[in-house]
Structures are given as structure tokens and as C-alpha cells.
Amino acid sequence: MASSMKLSLILFFACILFVQKTLGDVICENLPTNLCSFAIASSGKRCVVETCKNAQGKANYTCKTSEVLVEKLSGYIETDQCVNRCGLLRGSVGISSDAFLSSDFIAHLCTPACYQGCPNIVDLFSNLAASEGISLPTLCQNQMKNHRGMLAILSNGGATAGPVATPLAAAVAPAPSSL
User: Fold this and answer.
1) Keyword Iron, does the record have it (predicted)?
2) Is the pLDDT of residue 107 over 50?
């Protein structure tokens, strides 16, 4: 009985090693650039897309390992579903705190689908916000309050009617929007 227990344990550990080697390690430099952003290497460091110029001066993009260490995740490639839920683009080069100036970005990041369903992205932007002295949970709470206030206005909760367009104003082309 004891020998079958030992054999079972040896077989179990051999299977674990086999599965680990089969799945492989996530190494940023081996990732294609379309999977690089929002990925975490097996070492626990975030992957980033960097720009470099080739001999002809044309920009090339490569995936590199950053020095940013993630405590809870390693060997993780973010899903397209989470990238889309959070309103992000996987091909982005670098990540900036300027994103927090965009109410559209904050609206996507703070949705329950993103905020509660995409912990890697939330961790990344929580740390980025903290480095700027911003609390992401507070920012999302404010976003939710503003959203509720806007819904009250849109449902005519005491809002007055706006101006009516005249035929001349309707003929004027709207200003181009920036994307």
C-alpha cells in the first residue's frame, strides 16, 4: 500500500512538471507585439511595447520586459475580452497617466465588467493612478456619481428643455470631432 502511494506521488509530480514545461514560460521578448501590452512575464514583470528604428529609419515595435513587478500575477496574457471591456487598445506603445484625463477612458475602466472582471488591468491602472496621487476606487466612485446624475438629467428629472435649433443653425455643418 505504501509503495503504491509513493508511485502515485511520483506520477503526480511528474505530471505537474510535464504540464508546466508543455505550457511554457511567458517571456516578453518572445511575444508578438499584438499580445504584448497588458501581459505579464513568468518572472512577474510587466511586458511593454517599445519603438525602435531600423536601418532605414522606419519604426519597428518590439515586446520588452519592464522593471515593473506584479505581485499577484505571473505568466499571464490579458484576454481580448478584457482589453475591449476596459476600452483599451492592445497595440498601444507605453502607458501614460494622461489616460485619467479622458472621461471616456474612466467610464470604460470603471464599468463593473472591467473593474470587477479584469484584475490585471485594474491593478495596472491602480498603480499608475497611485503614482500620480490618485485613488482609482475614489475616481470610479466619482465617475459612478456623475453617471447617475447625468441619468437623472436625461430622464428629465427636473431638467429644463434646451434651445430649439432654427433651420439656419441646422444647416451649419457640425465641427469635426477629434478621435
Assistant:
1) no
2) yes
Q: Let me know whether 40 and 86 are in one domain.
A: no
DSSP string, 34-103: HHHTTEE-TTSEEEEEEEEE-TTS-EEEEEEEEEEEPSS--SEE--HHHHHHTT--TT--S--GGGGG-H
Based on the fold, state whether residues 71 and 84 are members of the same structural domain.
Answer: no
| Statement to judge: residues 50 and 114 lie in one domain | no
Its pTM stands at 0.65
pLDDT tens across 72-102, in order?
Answer: 889 999 999 999 999 998 877 777 788 888 8
pLDDT of residue 54: 83
**Three cell numbers written together for 165:** 435649433
Q: Answer yes or no: do 90 and 147 share one domain.
A: yes
Indicate the DSSP class of residue 158.
S
What pLDDT, in 10s, does the model give residues 43-57? 999 999 998 888 888
Per the domain annotation, does 67 fall within a domain?
yes
CA 128/CA 121 separation, integer angstroms: 11
